Hints:
mainly beta; two-stranded antiparallel ribbon; CATH 2.40.50.140; about 10% helix
Amino acid sequence: MKKDIDFEDFMKLDIRVGEIIECSHLENSDKLFKLKVDFGKFQRQILSGIRDFYKTKDLLGQQAVFIINIPPRKIRGEMSEGMILCSDDKKSVIFLTPKKKISNGAKIL
């Protein structure tokens, strides 16, 4: 386990539901997807290293949970403007998703 953090630090995270509206393989990478994610009032490009576990068709139209207020990061020449939340048990990677369809951009409280 990691060290405890203050509740105030946790509250700094902007965690939202977004819908993956585009998904492609990132050039010059065997592991990265380039996702275009709709958060209702805005869209973001997010790179994710989950290609070993999913095909593009598996992700299109899916809602997932993302952190959207981490600083943008350039990876292999492309900007990533957030992070998809996943669980990993060394056998598979599962992205977190709402149990029911909800508005894109809904905040995780």
